[in-house]
Amino acid sequence: EKLLSYSKYVVKEEDAANFSISDKFDSKGPVNIEIGTGRGKFITSFAKNNPGLNYVGIECKEEVLIKAVKKAEDMELQNIKFIIGDALRMNEYFSNGEVERIFINFCDPWPKRRHAKRRLVYRKFLDVYKEILIPGGEIHFKTDNEKLFEFALNEMSGSGLRLKNITFDLHASDYEGNITTEYEEKFAQKGMKIFRCEAHKID
Ligand code: SAM
Questions:
Q1: Which atom of ligand 1 lies closest to the CA of 184?
Q2: For residue 185, what are the domain limits?
Q3: Is residue 3 domain-resident?
Q4: d(CA 151, CA 48)
Q5: Which residues contact ligand 1 via a Cβ below 6 A?
Q6: Domain count, the chain
Q7: Is 5 domain-assigned?
Q8: What gap in Å lies between CA 111 and CA 148, rounded to an integer?
Q9: Is there a domain that residue 175 lies in?
Q10: Contact 45/32 with Cβ under 8 angstroms?
């Protein structure tokens, strides 16, 4: 209930499925999404730095999402919405070609092989992302987990996405403009390497 009281920012799953999210923004145009937004540092920073673009954070845990929503309100952001929902149902929330870029940051690695289908970069998820991306649309992925990174690279190339800008140590690389997430800061403080890649939809 508390989360839904932030009606300027929060879109219920059923509303996301029944109405076009693009209509909820003042300025029209494709949206940028973060899946598994968590406490929202990453997407609120992006939204603040790019007031001309629209951002949507998707998160399934309400108690975490409220922190992201409060950040957006404190920053008085006009170009961001949050959906309480599931990445696998994104083709219900967005129409084909409505999304320009998808960010997946430090998703749960689900290390056991029998849980591979739960990883947010598993092929079934990628198929959903491909449906809603514009031609040439991009998935940007970061993780601290090398095995998950290898898995992601295989799944992405196996799904016909074109891999670009792969780095095995983001913070030591010459990549500019990185915005850190809450998890990324924790891992970096421990001296762990951060892996990053982009996967572009070809057609
Ligand atoms: N991206 C944030 C960061 O880097 O600080 C949070 C990372 S946290 C490990 C992963 C987040 O993804 C959790 O908040 C979890 O609830 C969310 N999540 C996991 N599966 C999801 C799904 N299928 N749909 C939406 N969110 C999901």
A1: 4
A2: 10-201
A3: no
A4: 32
A5: 35-36, 38, 58-61, 64, 86-88, 105-108, 181-184
A6: 1
A7: no
A8: 8
A9: yes
A10: no
- Cα-to-centroid distance, 46 and ligand 1 (Å): 17
Spacing, Cα 36 to ligand 1 middle (Å): 3
The domain that contains 52 carries what CATH number? 3.40.50.150
The sheet carrying 10-11 orders its strands as 10-11, 80-84, 54-59, 31-35, 99-105, 133-143, 195-201, 161-167
Residue 2: inside a domain, yes or no? Answer: no
The single residue listed with the structure tokens 């320009």 is 100
Residues marked active site are found at 108
| pLDDT, tens digit only, all 203 positions of the chain | 888 889 899 998 888 888 888 888 888 888 999 999 999 999 999 999 999 999 999 999 999 999 999 999 999 999 999 999 999 999 999 999 999 999 999 999 999 999 999 999 999 999 999 999 999 999 999 999 999 999 999 999 999 999 999 999 999 999 999 999 999 999 999 999 999 999 999 97
CA angle 141/43/7 to nearest 5° reads 135
Atom of ligand 1 nearest to the CA of 61: 16
| Token output for 17 | 């499925």
Q: What is the CA radius of gyration of the chain?
A: 16
Is the ipTM higher than 0.85? The answer is yes
